Amino acid sequence: MEEEEEWEDEDGYEDEEVEDEDDDTSWKVRRAAVKVLNAVVTSRPEMLTELYTKCGAELVNRFKEREENVRLDIIECFAALVKMTELAEARKGTPTLVNTEQSPAVGLLESMLATVMTASMKQLNGKADKTKSAVFAMLKSLCTVVPSALGAHMTELVPCVCGCLTDKNQSLKLDALTFLRLAMENQAPETLQASMDRIIPLILALVREEWYKIIAEALRVVQVIVTVLRPLDDDSGMFIGDYDYTAHVDPIYEAILVRLEAHDIDQEIKECAIIAVGQLVSTLGDQLTDRLPVVEGLLMERLRNEITRMPTLKAIAMICASPIGIDLTPILNEAIQELSQFLRQQSRPLKQTTLETLMALVKSSATNMTESLFDLILSEAAPLVSDGDLHLTHLSLRLSISVLTVSPSASNTLAQHIMPKCLLIAASPLLQGRALESLLDLLKGLVSLDAPGLTFDELYDLIQSKVNDVEQKQGIANIAHCLATLCVATTEGKRGVTVGSLVEALNGSDEPRRNLALLTIGELGQHRDLTATVDGLQMIVLESFESPSEETKTAAAYALGRMAVGNMACYLPVILESLNANRHHYLLLSALKEVIVLHANTTGLDFGPYIEQVLPHLLKVRYATLRYATLRYVIQG
């Protein structure tokens, strides 16, 4: 070590005038040490804090290593340390009210960020291209781990990046572009707006480059630049800021248009150009009013092309979501007819993206759409409503809701094409999740609309009749969800009559209908207090515990628990008092579990006030159960 220190000059670099470089093998030792450290970093994530404390500063200090291979390994090792920090943060998941504290590793990384950036910028201003690429790889991870802290250094970092964007090394240009895109995506727009005058001309020049990878990445950067020029507030859905972007609109438009119009270019460039123009029109379309017909015509041309239709669908959806309110009337009819045909294609991603784009078009341009277009959309979406693909079912039902919201007269087409499919999936044991939620939302909307052929009574009878076709209990449970949703959405009078008929069904001998009645009462009781609707309803449900059918007993426990959520003061004491008896402990505990789970999973419900009331009964049941088990063991012994 003492010999090495003697060789070092004032800048910390080793003397290049060593008599015999071949005899200097100390770099091999350093390289081997770094490789061992890299192995520790990547294999022991639980040691992150210790690694930052003991090794972080030393690694950054050695960015100045004279031997390039060693220097690359050192930067790679520190990049691995940052990457492992990123993975550790990802495992923690989204911050919650309980887990909001910053991890020690991230805190240590932020504390040494100024030193890291100084050392990194020194390397970016150097002449070693491989080192610059390694630094960019490390900075990309920093963008994810400490985005807010990195923003304070962007003013000094931008000149270094711009220098790399004009370098002759194509790979280095690509690395600089990728980092710049990630930096702009993860930074507050205000931190980069001051540098736009310097960055934009360089990026637009790269859009006119020859290597397809640089062109595509430059177009992606252009897309992000547009969002920096005119930021969108996620909460209000409106554009914010007072940055003057008008001078940049035309140059950006011209650069994108050249690539958008070209036919003999790489597929990746085509897709990036389409997405970029979609973002440009969505964000700055009010500055391009006279040029919109050209863009819309090109988008329709790309929409008809099988190779470019997917990115075009995404671009149209982006334009529809714009708060500016872009007028798509010139291509609206033609676009919807084209999209409707896409729903017949075999490609699942195409159908999914098409449904999402149709929803965006309906929400943004409904006033310019005719009834025939709404009918076309519903008739083509209907075949996708099935239990074979629940996500497409969910999207198709959301699209139906959107159409019904803006055009109530489309209910006739919906009754003809969509409702038969809805009746089939309502009885399917496979129906669950978002598809079930969308079906329930559609039924709520239909009850509120009260259209001929789709009134509450007609819908209730149609769905209830499906119980005869169901053999699995999950299918019956889904029908109960639908019936309860109808009852929640209807008037108080109709709800009372319906609950009365459900209570009558409990006295019948048809087990499927008894189960359906219990499940429906439970689902309805969760959302509406039924104490005033039927006197002694809790005792009627408790009588079902005596049924010889296990499924009926389980349904009764489920119903009792759900009903209790609707009126805890009335129904919870009934459950707890019944626990004091020596019968049906399992069923009553199942009902109580349903109460607790619903409180835990439903926003706005708090089980805290009932814990003192419930806990003694649970402990008593546990003691009785243990005593019974001990007695049985003694008898058997």
Mind explaining what this structure looks like?
With 637 residues, the chain is mainly alpha-helical. Helices cover 72% and strands 0% of the residues. The protein has helices spanning 2-7, 26-43, 48-61, 68-92, 104-111, 113-124, 129-145, 147-150, 154-165, 170-186, 190-193, 196-207, 212-229, 246-261, 267-284, 292-303, 309-320, 329-342, 348-365, 371-381, 390-406, 411-426, 433-449, 456-464, 473-489, 492-506, 511-527, 537-543, 550-566, 568-580, 585-601, 611-636. Helix 18 packs antiparallel against helix 19. The N and C termini lie far apart (77 Å).
Quick tags:
single chain; disordered C terminus; mainly alpha; 637 residues; flat; disordered N terminus
Q: Could you outline the blueprint of secondary structure elements for this entry?
A:
Elements: H1 2-7, H2 26-43, H3 48-61, H4 68-92, H5 104-111, H6 113-124, H7 129-145, H8 147-150, H9 154-165, H10 170-186, H11 190-193, H12 196-207, H13 212-229, H14 246-261, H15 267-284, H16 292-303, H17 309-320, H18 329-342, H19 348-365, H20 371-381, H21 390-406, H22 411-426, H23 433-449, H24 456-464, H25 473-489, H26 492-506, H27 511-527, H28 537-543, H29 550-566, H30 568-580, H31 585-601, H32 611-636
Helix pairs in contact: 2-4, 3-4, 3-5, 4-7, 7-10, 9-10, 10-13, 12-13, 12-14, 13-15, 14-15, 15-17, 16-17, 16-18, 17-19, 18-19, 18-20, 19-21, 20-21, 20-22, 21-23, 23-25, 24-25, 25-27, 26-27, 27-29, 29-30, 29-31, 30-31
